[in-house]
C-alpha cells in the first residue's frame, strides 16, 4: 500500500486510532505552545491531517488570525474541513499540496507566515529536507517554526521500542529521519523537549532575520 492510500483509508478513523490522548497529544501541545502565537497571527500547519492541531492553533490566533492546513491527502483534508465547519472556524483554510513541492503563499501576500508547525509529518516525507527548506521559506524572518516528530526510544525507554516501531510503521514514518535536527541547525532560540524515552521529539526555533 502506498502512503497516500494509507491515509485515504484511515482518515475517518485517524483521530481514534492515532494514539492521540495517551501518547502524542503532549508533543503537539508543547510544539504549539513554543510558537508564542498571539491573536491575529497567521500559522501554516504542514501535513495537517485531520486538523488535530487546529483547536490549539485557533484558540491561540483567535478570530482575527488565520490557520492554513496543508496536506496531500484529500481524505485527511476533508476531515479537517469537517472539524472547522462543525466548530465554526472561518479562519481555517485548507490547501491540498505536497509539502516538498514548493513554498505556500500567505493569503494576504505578506512576506510570510508568523509561524509554521509540522507535527508527526516530516518523517513521512522521503525528501523532508526539501519540505523543511520550503517551511523555512514560508515563515517570515523572526517567525517561529516547530517540528514535532518520532524516533525510536533510547535509554530506559528502550522497553517501548517495539511499540514505537509499530506506531511508526503504521503511520508510514521513518524513525531514523530525525527532521528536528534541521531546527537545531537552521534556527536560533531553539527549545527542545521529548517524551516516552525520546519517542516524541519537539524542537521550536526562530527563523533568523
Ligand atoms: C501521521 S499524519 C499527522 C497529521 C497531523 N499533523 C497530526 O499531528 O495529527 C501525517 C500527515 O502527513 C501527510 N503527508 C505525508 N506526506 C506529505 C507530503 N509530502 N505533503 C503533504 N502532506 C503529507 C499525510 O497525508 C498525513 O495526513
TrEMBL record:
Organism: Rhodococcus antarcticus
Keyword field contains Hydrolase: no
Keyword annotations from UniProtKB, A to Z: Methyltransferase, Transferase
UniProt-recorded name of the protein: Class I SAM-dependent methyltransferase
Stretches assigned to the Methyltransferase domain: 43-143
GO MF annotations in UniProt: methyltransferase activity
CDD domains: AdoMet_MTases
GO biological-process terms attached to the record: methylation
Entries under PANTHER family matching the protein: METHYLTRANSFERASE
Amino acid at each position: 500500500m502506498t502512503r497516500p492510500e494509507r491515509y485515504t483509508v484511515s482518515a475517518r478513523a485517524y483521530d481514534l486510532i492515532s494514539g492521540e490522548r495517551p501518547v502524542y497529544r503532549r508533543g503537539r501541545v508543547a510544539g504549539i505552545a513554543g510558537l508564542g502565537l498571539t491573536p491575529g497571527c497567521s500559522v501554516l500547519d504542514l501535513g495537517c491531517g485531520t486538523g488535530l492541531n487546529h483547536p490549539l492553533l485557533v484558540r491561540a490566533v483567535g478570530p482575527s488570525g488565520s490557520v492554513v492546513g496543508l496536506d496531500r491527502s484529500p481524505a485527511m483534508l476533508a476531515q479537517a474541513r469537517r472539524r472547522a465547519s462543525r466548530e465554526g472556524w472561518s479562519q481555517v483554510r485548507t490547501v491540498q499540496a505536497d509539502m516538498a513541492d514548493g513554498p505556500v503563499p500567505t493569503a494576504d501576500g505578506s512576506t510570510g507566515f508568523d509561524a509554521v508547525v509540522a507535527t508527526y509529518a516530516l518523517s513521512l516525507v522521503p525528501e523532508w529536507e526539501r519540505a523543511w527548506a520550503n517551511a523555512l521559506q514560508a515563515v517570515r524572518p523572526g517567525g517561529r517554526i516547530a517540528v514535532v516528530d518520532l524516533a525510536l526510544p533510547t535509554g530506559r525507554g528502550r522497553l517501548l521500542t517495539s511499540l514505537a516501531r509499530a506506531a511508526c510503521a503504521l503511520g508510514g514514518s521513518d524513525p531514523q529521519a530525525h527532521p528536528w535536527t534541521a531546527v537545531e541547525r537552521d534556527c536560533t532560540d531553539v527549545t527542545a523537549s521529548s517524551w516516552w524515552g525520546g519517542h516524541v521529539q519537539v524542537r521550536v526555533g526562530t527563523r533568523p532575520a
